[in-house]
Amino acid sequence: MARLHYGMITSLDGYAVAADGDLGRGAEDEEVHAFIGDAFRDVGTFLYGRRMYETMLFWETVHEQPDVPQHILDYARDWRAAEKVVFSTRLERVASECTRVVRSFEPEAVRRLKDASPHDLSIDGPTLAARAIRAGLVDEYHLFMTTSVVGGGTRFFPDGVRLDLELVEQRAFANGLLYARYRAR
């Protein structure tokens, strides 16, 4: 059975989306970006809500731009090759290869997808991930914490959910970003 990963860049105080839109410094670093590419290279399917999918569409065409660094090209190649499932009632058509729209998030359907997949899956975006967390579907959590405290926004972990996690990997980057990977117990 494949594992479902949830990973995002967060503020130091735990917000995946800042109220003012800026999570602070840390993610734009080449070392960090190459690490993220390596950490998610084996993901065969990305699960998105509409807004996160529209944000990630950058990776569909970035290789067409001049002078793109190799670590960006590598991530873009892996992203384009992966399956993408977008949970949306409003998205009319997709703008990327290997992508399909599903009109509602059904935990049992995601469970079956995990059971049938030969590769791990990733769920991205705190709103969609909260539904998967509440349903007990997420196996691993990847937090990339910036050096900023933003004071509000959308939290990485949903309110009202208790999780007992095991720290399985951690790393500090030269730019101050902290990485922590946790596994559900």
Automatic annotation (TrEMBL):
It comes from the Bacteria. Residues 7-178 form the Bacterial bifunctional deaminase-reductase C-terminal domain. Transmembrane segments: none annotated. InterPro entries: DHFR-like_dom_sf, RibDG_C, Riboflavin_Biosynth_HTPR. This is Deaminase.
